[in-house]
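Work Package 3 (structural annotation) set out to generate three-dimensional models for the target panel prioritized at the project kickoff. During this period the team completed the workflow that converts sequence records into discrete structure tokens, so that structures can be stored uniformly alongside our sequence database. As a representative example, we reproduce one entry of 414 residues exactly as it appears in the project archive.
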Amino acid sequence: MIRNHIKSDFPIFSYWESRGKPLVYLDSAATTQKPLRVISKVEEYYSQFNANVHRGTYELSQIATDIYEEARSKVARFINGLQPESVIFTRNATESLNLVAYAWGLNNLKEGDEVILSEMEHHSNLVPWHIIARHTGAVLKFIRMNHDYQLDLDSLRQILTAKTKAVSVVHVSNVLGTINPVKEITAIAHDAGAISIVDGAQSAPHIPVDVQDIGCDFYAFSGHKMCGPTGIGGLYGKYDLLEKMEPFLGGGEMINEVFPTTSNYAKPPYKFEAGTPNISGAIGLQAAIEYIEDLGLKNIEEHEVALGDYAAQRLAEVEGIRIFRPHATGTGVISFTIDNVHPHDISTILDAEGIAIRAGHHCAQPLMRKLQVQSTARASFYLYNDRSDVETLARALEKAVAIFSPRKKANVLK
């Protein structure tokens, strides 16, 4: 169970309360708020231990290096990675997925080879493969989504061939909240001789993740979606694959030896971390993971599932609403449309009530077309939300409906 008064851990809520406009933050799928523990840890690094890592022999640099590598070990344990060296620090899940597409895809795909994605992918797991397909001649195929917003694994089996080299899917949909069976998908991919790539941007913050149990070859995530700073994320990769891959970026610190016309590279993960890394971000991410672990990921998952289910039931009472969510329990993501009200208008009206939601295509335009909508509104709940936030949202949506209903408008605006 998530403890009461958890919002007091997050300074942003008291700040907006002091300004007379309490914040109901329902856009955690885009980015989460940061607890004081994370903010203080980043400040501590800059005020006490700021130095570059892996470069200096002086004490301050050694301390910074130790703290940075301790953060890597924490990330590896958090997702049950086999070894710290299997975790590469990146800017976010987007960069992690690009790293795989370029560093693995360009050197392992040829004309006619196949990469399988799904109909519910975020652009971060679509656009890199579009680019790689243009460079290599590879073909993209897609796992179908059924009427209940679940992936149809029979369609995956049907499109697999001897030419399939990779299956790359989202763990949890940022639009639908669907939790995909990535362990089963990975097993199917491996049986066909393909590698498995998992976009974990929406799973790592919300549900327990065990990459060894999933069996995936790569797992990507972002720190800012799990109470950490922006500009830090990670890629887990099986070490034997990382060793065989070419670097994604070239420059300082990713090398072993450099000569005028050639160079050779350091071992993973450093081969993929060119230049000065986001040291403070990694340290802040460690603090965020420790905060989440103190609360308990299982507790967070149960809290969000219950809140998401309650929100789906409560919002279903709003006139003209259509909710895009699987009947089977999903996460705390609720995407919806309301008859005759544009999602951007919904967002604007809710903002006037102090409610922050997302409106748009959510970086998932192919999925929007599949749903036969241009865009949706989306409320995404996290550990600092509760039922009162659901009620505030529902009342504001009822007001929005009334504003756009000529029959009810006069009474609402009295």
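The two ends are 42 Å apart (CA to CA).
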